[in-house]
Amino acid sequence: MFPIGNSFPRAYRVTLKKDFSTIFSTGVRRTFGPLLFHVSENTIGHSRLGLSIPRRVGNAVMRNRIKRRCREAFRQSKDVLPAVDIIITVRPHDELSLDGYTQLLLKAVE
Prior knowledge:
The chain is an alpha+beta fold.
């Protein structure tokens, strides 16, 4: 499913503004801990991830660390995720471990 090296190619990202708008308007909203998930089915055949992390979450270092952990949680869970688009909106919080973000992601997609 993913290329060698377990990278995060563009095909597995939600990047277009119209896709974000569609998922925000039609997706199912679920809140787990400090994360708000917008989940919407897609016809691509694999899951995609989009992230929305406002500045109030913290400085750039903290926001980037949270982004890396969320992307890694998505990569580790790729085999069990259905064909859905997921947008994660992060709210201010103390950082969780990678396992914490993985558990929240899996719970949101159930």
